[in-house]
Design brief:
Rossmann fold; 4-stranded antiparallel beta sheet; Four Helix Bundle (Hemerythrin (Met), subunit A); 4-stranded parallel beta sheet; 15 strands; alpha/beta
Length: about 475
């Protein structure tokens, strides 16, 4: 398996720390509002990473944090005139509701920053004791010049980061690139005790502590959106390296940015959409298909036309399942001829190859399309069609599709399939009335390929689904 490592900026062979096991950490939300559709891309992608490793037989431990104390949370609480905890609890619940609505499986561990403040405080004390951090003006800062490797993840050299460029000027800092580990609290803000007075932890320390608490000093994969590479992930890595002399993670994975109809998402441009907003107009699998139809590292443009195309594409998969009466036959074991069994094995291998090439989900989806064609059109063998449908569902589930088959096939789809058949029959009747025998024969033959047999009688045309050998 090849993964693109953001730190080395190249694809590398994935070698787990422990054979057959994966330790994965992906940054979760800062719960001051509903998460936006750009965040959804990251949450969906790392859900797929976890699913694929499980499909390949790995024992996965997936940790995703919830940041429930932060400047943004405090600002939102002040705006709403409620406590910070009221805000954090409200939007943490919303996060859990919306990720579940998107079909995202809950992580194995989901710690909250406020639950580990004593551990964070102890971590900062060690950094101070070892000379990597210092107290000034009631705050504690990490001294970036104390770590020669600082900037190795982002490629940003310390000397190139000037005051006023990436870091606001602060008279208490020794260097403009130094970042806050502990913040003294202002009047009315939440506080926790520490050796430096009452205050609260900084975001970068919260995450490094939570990841190492559950996954160890060094784990396999650390992930998140590209916007987190600097400063957040850079600063997490700096703290871990300072204390252990080891990398925080062996592989760093980051998904690309999302634009809205060609422009950066911004409230000022009135093109800011939360996942909750989008879920009112589109189902979760359509959103998932849209994101996975492009490589995770590529930027993607979110527009309604592309979303509608994703919905239509998914419809092809469900149409194929309707043709083979999947709900009735999903547990059947197809009696495949050797050549047909080899066809399906080759398609599954293509799917695996695509996913093991740095999670090329676009190529993996192309395999699902091939299977849908096998299930609908490409074969007169009912056993091959059923086998193709079963494999499509199994592989599609790795990408997070087909989670509600009973609902979608058991209610809406049979009625829709019946309506479509009768619509085609009406077109054929119109062609016959116009003596367009070529068109009439084409409609009959196309339906016959799908296993639908027509019978013309004096009372009209009737149809049945015929078992094909």
């Amino acid at each position: 398996m090849l993964l693109y490592n953001s730190q080395t900026r190249k694809k590398e062979e994935f070698i787990p720390i422990s054979p057959g096991k994966l330790k994965l950490y992906a940054c979760g939300p800062t719960v001051y509002n509903y998460f936006h559709i750009g965040n959804a891309r990251a949450f969906l992608f790392f859900d797929v990473v976890r699913r694929f490793f499980q499909y390949r037989g790995y024992e996965v431990t997936y940790v995703q944090n919830i940041t429930d104390i932060d400047d943004k949370i405090i600002a939102q609480a002040q705006e709403e005139e409620v406590s910070y905890k009221t805000v954090a609890d409200k939007y943490a619940r919303a996060f859990l509701e919306d990720t579940a609505a998107l079909g995202i499986t809950a992580p194995d561990v989901q710690p909250r920053a406020t639950d580990v403040v004593p551990e964070i405080t102890a971590y900062i004390e060690k950094l101070v004791q070892h000379g990597y951090a210092y107290e000034a003006g009631g705050d504690v800062y990490f001294d970036t010049t104390s770590l020669p490797s600082y900037g190795s993840l982002s490629g940003k050299k310390t000397e190139e980061q000037l005051v006023g460029a990436r870091v606001a000027e602060n008279p208490y800092k020794r260097n403009p690139t130094d970042f806050t580990l502990w913040k003294h609290s202002k009047p009315g803000e939440p506080v926790w005790p520490s050796p430096w007075g009452e205050g609260r932890p900084g975001w970068h320390t919260e995450c490094v502590v939570m990841s190492q608490m559950y996954l160890g000093e060094t784990f396999d994969i650390h992930g998140g959106g590209s916007d987190l590479i600097f400063p957040h992930h850079e600063n997490e890595l700096a703290q871990a390296t300072a204390l252990s002399g080891k990398p925080l993670a062996n592989y760093w994975m980051h998904n690309g940015f999302l634009n809205i109809e060609g422009e950066k998402m911004s409230k000022s441009l009135k093109n800011f959409f939360t996942a909750r907003d989008i879920l009112k107009d589109y189902d979760a699998e359509t959103i998932r298909f849209f994101f996975l139809s492009k490589h995770y590292r590529s930027p993607i443009d979110f527009n309604r036309e592309l979303i509608d195309e994703s919905r239509k594409a998914l419809g092809n998969f469900y149409a194929a399942l309707g043709v083979v009466d999947f709900l009735e036959n999903r547990d059947a074991k197809p009696d495949l001829e050797p050549g047909n069994a080899e066809i399906l094995r080759a398609l599954e291998a293509d799917f695996i190859t695509a996913m093991e090439d740095d999670f090329n989900t676009a190529r993996a989806i192309a395999v699902l399309f091939e299977l849908s064609h096998k299930a609908k059109l490409d074969s007169n063998s009912s056993q091959l069609r059923l086998g193709a449908a079963q494999l499509m569902v199994r592989l599609g589930s790795v990408l997070g599709f087909f989670s509600d088959l009973d609902e979608r096939l058991g209610s809406r789809m049979p009625d829709l399939s019946k309506s479509l058949i009768e619509l085609i029959i009406s077109y054929r009747a119109e062609a016959r009335a116009n003596k367009d025998w070529a068109a009439s024969d084409k409609f009959r033959n196309d339906l016959a390929r799908l296993g639908i047999e027509l019978k013309d009688t004096p009372e009209g045309c009737s149809w049945t689904i015929k078992e094909q050998k």
